[in-house]
Write a structure and sequence with these properties.
Layout lengths: L6 E4 L4 H12 L8 E4 L14 E3 L2 H7 L2 E4 L17 E4 L6 H8 L3 E5 L10 E6 L5 H12 L2 E5 L4 H9 L5 H16 L4 H21 L4 H11 L2 H10 L3 H20 L2
Parallel strand pairs: 1-2, 1-4, 2-3, 4-5, 5-6, 7-8
Antiparallel strand pairs: 6-7
Helix pairs in contact: 5-10, 6-7, 8-9
Bound molecules: NADPH dihydro-nicotinamide-adenine-dinucleotide phosphate and (2S)-3,4-dihydro-2H-pyrrole-2-carboxylic acid (A1CAB).
The site of (2S)-3,4-dihydro-2H-pyrrole-2-carboxylic acid has 4 residues, from loops.
Length: about 260
Amino acid sequence: MTRNSSIAILGGNGALGSAIATALLARGVVEAGALWISSRSGTAGPLTGTGVRTTSQAQEAACACGTVILAVPPAQAGALGIAAADALVISVMAGVPRSRLAALAGAGRVVRAMSSPAAATHRAFSPWFAPDLGAADKARTDRILSACGLADEVTEEAHIDLFTGITGPIPGFVAYLAQCFADHATARGVAPDVANRAARQLFLASGEALAASDLPPAAHVQAMIDYAGTTAAGLRAMQASPLAAAIAEGVEAAVARAQQMGRG
Ligand SMILES: NC(=O)C1=CN([C@@H]2O[C@H](COP(=O)(O)OP(=O)(O)OC[C@H]3O[C@@H](n4cnc5c(N)ncnc54)[C@H](OP(=O)(O)O)[C@@H]3O)[C@@H](O)[C@H]2O)C=CC1
Ligand SMILES: O=C(O)[C@@H]1CCC=N1
């Protein structure tokens, strides 16, 4: 165990931090004895009993580790109180711009990223932005975030805010889409428990089908339209409706909120 291989997660006992920790341990990116969970309470939360190290002193964790992951609420970003000059710092805090991160963490090597609690089962999408990092730091960042699911380096920091809106929350906006289908079924006389079971099964099966295919979602839509059956009629009606614009409006509202939260 060397300092460079150790990882600290500030806020690591929380929903996102513990999910990332779970993914890193499961994929062998870090051993439990080299994984520091830092929080104000000094508790391990969901990681209790895994052998991870805990501390209520963020600087103790930052000094001991070659990589520091920032997973505290954006409102707490200003209270980090660390100087991680020799560490690679990866932030998954919503809305906190990269321009603030170097000062907040006292660091020179900073990645702005996003992930989701789906990391716990390796199903997160984790975009990251760090144009000025060297190859070794980029490779380390990719290894850490790829343990959480799919990871992609993006070319614009604004895309981190965008994905904070789209892929950060799980089930997020998809839960609302499922609710809309269930509510319509209920309005047509279906018992609410049946409508909800149907909606959950629809999104489980559809999500697995989309994930198993290399085709983009648009190709699946076109295939159903070309099939010219019942779904085609529904898709054409939805394509003619304001649905796509409403979804974009919702995402942009989330993006705006993230940017507001992250300004400090
Ligand atoms: N939850 C989600 O779905 C997602 C969250 N995020 C981002 O992840 C970050 C964490 O969110 P989430 O996990 O939901 O929050 P939680 O409240 O679940 O966890 C945050 C943890 O941070 C700890 N904490 C709070 N303040 C400090 C501090 N000053 N120093 C050290 N630890 C601190 C808390 O522990 P204690 O009280 O013991 O200090 C808490 O357990 C946020 O920036 C959020 O925007 C991003 C995408 C999705
Ligand atoms: O809703 C939220 O604030 C959290 C952060 C990004 C996604 N989910």
